[in-house]
Amino acid sequence: MAKTIATIPTENGWKYVQQLCKHWSHKLQVELTENRGLVRFETATALMTCTDNAITVEIDADSADQLERLKGVVSSHLDRFAFREAPLTYDWKAA
Fold first, then answer.
1. To the nearest 10°, the Cα dihedral for 82, 88, 92, 95?
2. CB neighbour burial string for 51-83, b if at least 16 within 10 angstroms, e if fewer
3. What CATH code is carried by the domain that includes residue 9?
4. 44-56, pLDDT tens digit by residue?
5. Is the peptide bond before 87 cis (omega within 30 degrees of 0)?
């Protein structure tokens, strides 16, 4: 199992997480609660939690390769929804 975490500065985090979860809910299992979104991919999960000034993203994947792929998928999708302030800053760290 491989895991990473990043805190992404933005004041619009909750808006982006809602948009991203709605987007992925058409094909993936998604749980959206107050200030929290969980997306279940086939071989990984992405947990996104929000504060007033950041999104924290935690990705758990079955392998290091899947983890790297999902980091790119999550960041590119968040940047797409945050187009007015993209690219966002991702400081991925092993967790």
1. -50
2. eeebbebebbbeeeebbebbbebbbebbbebbe
3. 3.30.310.50
4. 999 999 999 999 9
5. yes
Query: What are the tens digits of pLDDT across the range 32-90?
Result: 998 999 999 999 999 999 999 999 999 999 999 999 999 999 999 999 999 999 899 99
Give yes or no for a contact between 53 and 11, defined as CB atoms under 8 angstroms apart.
yes
Q: For the beta carbon of residue 41, count every other beta carbon within 10 angstroms.
A: 20
The tally of domains found in the chain comes to: 1
Domain assignment of residue 51, given as a range: 2-94
Find tokens 């200030």 and name the residue. Answer: 35
